Amino acid sequence: MAGALENVLEKKTGVTGSGWFGEHGRHRLTITVDGTEGAADGTYTLECAPNGGSHASPGAACARLDQLAADGLNPFKPVPRGTMCTQQYGGPQTARVRGQWQGRHIDAVFSRADGCEISRWNSLVPVLPAADGA
Fold this sequence. Notes:
Blueprint: H1 2-13, E1 27-34, E2 42-48, H2 58-70, E3 91-101, E4 104-112, H3 115-122
Antiparallel strand pairs: 1-2, 1-3, 3-4
Keywords: Disulfide bond, Protease inhibitor, Secreted, Serine protease inhibitor
Protein name: Subtilase-type protease inhibitor
GO cellular component, one term: extracellular region
């Protein structure tokens, strides 16, 4: 029964895998950061429950992801088309986050190209590095 329901949910939502019935506290992410001109550039892994991977601060990063989930927020959702954003440039930093979050497959791209993207990036610090690249 769960398999059939999963197939229906996948078709309607685009969420793949066993996320609907899996362990929601577990996160497995690959994070690639570029443009910080510092030590934060590179590709890292982050695993939560238990916390680990090559991320510099897995405990703090996992706590942030858990808080966002508890608040019912999806930080990996792109800025909706047509959203009015301030035209301020936050820097050349880019990031791509792929993997499993809250039992769902995610593949999200981040930048600091305008006010909306800066806010989106900042909502994920310390999963993503602070703007200064520290």
